[in-house]
Amino acid sequence: MADVEPSIVIDRRLEREDPTTRVSVIIDQAAILDLDGPVVILGDPGIGKSVLAQAIGRQTGFVYVRAASFVRNAQPQHLIPNGECLVIDGLDEIASATVGGGVDAILTQLSKLGYPRFILSSREVDWRGAADRIKIEDDYGRPAILLHLLAFDRGDATHFLRRNFPSVDADGALTHLADRGLEEIYKNPLTLRLIGEVAASDEALPISRAQLLERACQLLVQEENPRHHDAAHAHAEAEKLLLAAGAYAATQLLCDLAGLFNGPAGTIPDSCIHVGSIAALPHAEAIDAALHTRLVEAEGGQRFQLLHRVIAEYLGAKWLARCFQSGVSARRLFSLFGQGHGVPTSLRGLHAWLAHFDDTLAEV
Predict the structure, then answer these.
(1) pLDDT at 288 over 50
(2) In this structure, are residues 275 and 260 in contact, taking their beta carbons and an 8 Å threshold?
(3) pTM, full prediction
């Protein structure tokens, strides 16, 4: 699931860890292009890993691919016909309850290509440190170069807000967050953009991450274009739109799907689900209208994705909690996350939000 790409791109800084000395240095994103050998970019959710990976993938000699698509591809050799460097985005999006399963799956595909140069992005929490590093070194004969994508500093955040949301008092918004110990919100590009959305709407600024996501999602389902005010989604209740989007989000995350499809039912792409199947789920009758909101991005070919995985995890948990409140048992709900192996790393975000939406689920 791609990161939200701002209209003004901030050049990013990364911390490079020397695999031998463990000494760290700061590099800018342009330096990544010149690194030789396997590279792993780590960062927190919403920090901008996908935006960075996509930017690298647009450079000559580099090819961008999502990790889930790469692993599913039966003919991966067609991805790099001229020996380009593969930019594999989203190790954390490969659903696996097996320790190290994500890296194993990536390396298995890379072995079919003769172990080409690659850049792999992942959430920090889904990178298993020495275990994953050793696997790459065993297969490539050299250690991976680890890069940690650094958060925005106050200057980055100020520049971002001023350029993308000129009507917002950038200094005032950032001071509001800092005074409440919420600097981590403006240090993260995704949540900073959501702050911009909320501040530009003249609503009171949030005092927690949960409140930010709640207010931002409410704004993202509102129709801003007056030419579309007569459209069905412009008249749908916000709660119904959010629950419908949550139904798809939960389904996509739990089933490791590639996207939502609204074309002819007989032509559904591999690993996609038809909009009609989502509409048949409880509280999801507004899914067709939800496709027309800013919560969703079109990928072409009548395929859609939610704006960001962080938002998908939040809305997916909202929908699951509503299903629980409508009579689905807690046992059945939690069985969706797997049995006997704990919660897979790719589902931890979705699982963690359940407690926010229902106190009973917090106690289970």
Answers:
(1) yes
(2) yes
(3) 0.73
